[in-house]
Amino acid sequence: MDRIQRLQKELEKTDTDYVIIGTTSNMFYLVGFSEEQMERPLLLFVTKDDYFMLVPKLYEEQLKQLPLIVYRDGEDPYSKLNLKENSNILIDDTTFSLFTIEILNRFKPRRLGKASVILRKLRQVKDDEEIEKMEKGVKKAEELLLEFVPDIKENMTECEIERKLKSFLIGEAGYISFDPIVTSGPNSSMPHLRCSDKKVKGGEVIVIDYGIKYEGYSTDTTRVFSLGRPNDTLALEIVEIVKSANEEAEKHVREGMRAKEIDDIARKVITDKGYGVYFIHRTGHGIGIDVHEDPYISPGNDDVIEQNMVFTIEPGIYLPGKFGIRIEDEVVVKKGYGKVLNTLQKELYIL
Amino acid sequence: MDRIQRLQKELEKTDTDYVIIGTTSNMFYLVGFSEEQMERPLLLFVTKDDYFMLVPKLYEEQLKQLPLIVYRDGEDPYSKLNLKENSNILIDDTTFSLFTIEILNRFKPRRLGKASVILRKLRQVKDDEEIEKMEKGVKKAEELLLEFVPDIKENMTECEIERKLKSFLIGEAGYISFDPIVTSGPNSSMPHLRCSDKKVKGGEVIVIDYGIKYEGYSTDTTRVFSLGRPNDTLALEIVEIVKSANEEAEKHVREGMRAKEIDDIARKVITDKGYGVYFIHRTGHGIGIDVHEDPYISPGNDDVIEQNMVFTIEPGIYLPGKFGIRIEDEVVVKKGYGKVLNTLQKELYIL
């Protein structure tokens, strides 16, 4: 059964009239087409028994194998649509708001909801082909990182390293799943700082969080490095704690448990060592076409872990003004247990 | 006057209660912060006399100089907000719909509109500092393209060339403004096809449409190439027509005219030669932080061209099954006239 049909089968159980999808990961998932989101509406409409796409004229030749409603630049795209008013519409979560606002104001739905309520069920459980791509992706990404890191030298800036890594990953893999994070010393205590003009010094903690796209699927891995031995021996202690948290959580992944229980396990290890207040984010997130997707391994999340889900386990400890440590793997649930896709060492790499 | 204040001054003229901005170009424009959009709300709220940001805990240290409302993973972010119901809200056009849908369903606004109705007025007219960055960006981008194109060899696939170009641009410039388009022969008649596994052959038309980000500002340029002389002499005739259309439009840019008039001028040149039906898109688009922004140089667009606007002029002719030709420059309106930022030749480059 193709993916549009699987979505339609789910729609049958609801009173949804339309699912509207932009040029996002959901469009790629449903019809295999990917494009950056832009200001021209390029939207897929799925109903219980039909689907069609609203596309600008300049995509017509490229998409001719699909059922198209075509408009030209200068025409009003929405006037080509014949959506019924007062309907129940689900909108693709990451589609740009301008389309949602037009739909809302033009077609007066009685309800607008997030398409993820249905699509997440389909996407969070991967099929074997998807898992194979993701396994290969992680392998490839790891090889590339090991090839890259010897090029990190003292006095390069974080952004210089980030740029070289990004250029290298794209040259070798074609696509990245997000702009890599390269932070060092005190900057590493900010988990989502991308990089700065700070120069990397010997003995500082360096955090690298990066991913590629492999046949459309994202990878996401974090490891920690140091040029020579770390100056601050506390860094090695913290690495040990984060590594234990990571491994404890991974070891206890079971089909049927709740996402929050995985978070609890990692968090308990860190809290027991007195660093709970410095673990300032969730333990992980699902991954697939998107680098972040369901299930989220968050405190309080009751989602049940199922066979063939893939998610990250990435506890961290962030000491403001000092450094931060995060160790991130991807885990797939197979035969009831968690199988870690990563093979890189979790200890700090001394470069 | 800072940009938040300029926005607030515009809000004074309206009955808008909140402008809500995601981690998009508008956030960069207003507060200088840029981040990829993700599932965690990281939103800027602007009212007539105040502003604040809703941010995940893991960004707190990084953004501490701004007025923050912080939530932790596992908490309900929206419960931290105290927005009044029945308000008039403008939402940032390219913010993910999931945030808009939450705002809609949680805070029951009486009206939801697009923030671009106000922000476009600010953003489409650049200040001198922005224009200087954009001029430097185009210069840099052109140098990089000329450095790159000698590496294009017969039998490389389009996607191989695309990947090498992307990797090179990122390595040299740090960021690209969009994934480059590299198409050849019959594929070049699809204006937004990115690339394929088709091998590039001698004598075929090759279209390269690419851009970098320079200090946060996008460039966007298209030129046409051929390995050796083109096999089809029609290609050279079509290049001449497209070049005339491009130059006629550029020459006639004037402060005070309407956007549609520029489109008309380019379109007339192509239509007079009998190819009007093959010019399947608008003549251009504004450019700045975003690669596509107001003003759109589209048929029927009554927007008035003002001093310090920057936009592209990019007519094209697409002959399905044969080839497509597009020539794209950036133009800034200065002293009442259009000043072309590009210097690359418009004739087909024989490599």
Automatic annotation (TrEMBL), chains A, B:
Keywords: Aminopeptidase, Hydrolase, Metal-binding, Protease. Residues 132-334 form the Peptidase M24 domain. The keyword Zinc does not apply. GO terms for molecular function: aminopeptidase activity; metal ion binding. Residues 3-125 form the Creatinase N-terminal domain. The keyword Hydrolase applies. It comes from the Archaea. Belongs to the peptidase M24B family. This is Aminopeptidase YpdF (MP-, MA-, MS-, AP-, NP-specific). It comes from Saccharolobus shibatae. The lineage of its organism: Archaea, Thermoproteota, Thermoprotei, Sulfolobales, Sulfolobaceae.
